[in-house]
């Protein structure tokens, strides 16, 4: 993993995951569904971007801060 920062769209997506989860406290699949619907994306696209964020920005301060606000069992 690199320590590169997320770009603006990636940051918005991660913030959306956190906000959605903190509002609804749903599992990963339901949270992805709600985020995808809100951003007019497919669920697969959201998952793909989340995997990319983890791979490319997984050590960044922003990612780690946002990730800590989600359940440990979320695969992102």
Tell me what you see in this structure.
- It contains 4 helices and no strands.
- Helix content is 67%, strand content 0%.
- By secondary structure, the protein is an all-alpha fold.
- Helix 2 crosses helix 3.
Properties at a glance:
mainly alpha, 67% helix, 76 residues, 4 helices, globular
Topology overview:
Layout: H1 8-24, H2 28-39, H3 43-57, H4 61-67
Radius of gyration: 11 Å
Amount of beta strand: under 5%
Unreliable runs: none
Instruction: Enumerate how many helices there are, as a single number.
Output: 4
The major beta sheet can be summarized as: none
Q: For the terminal residues, how far apart are their CA atoms? A: 13 Å
Number of strands: 0
User: Roughly what percent helix?
Assistant: 55-70%
* Averaged pLDDT: 94
Provide a brief overview of the structure.
The chain is mostly helical and 76 residues long.
């Amino acid at each position: 993993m690199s320590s590169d920062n997320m770009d603006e769209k990636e940051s918005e997506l991660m913030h959306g995951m956190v906000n959605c989860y903190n509002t609804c406290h749903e599992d990963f699949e339901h949270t992805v569904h709600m985020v995808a619907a809100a951003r007019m994306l497919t669920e697969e696209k959201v998952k793909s971007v989340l995997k990319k964020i983890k791979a490319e920005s997984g050590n960044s301060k922003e990612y780690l801060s946002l990730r800590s606000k989600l359940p440990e069992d979320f695969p992102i």
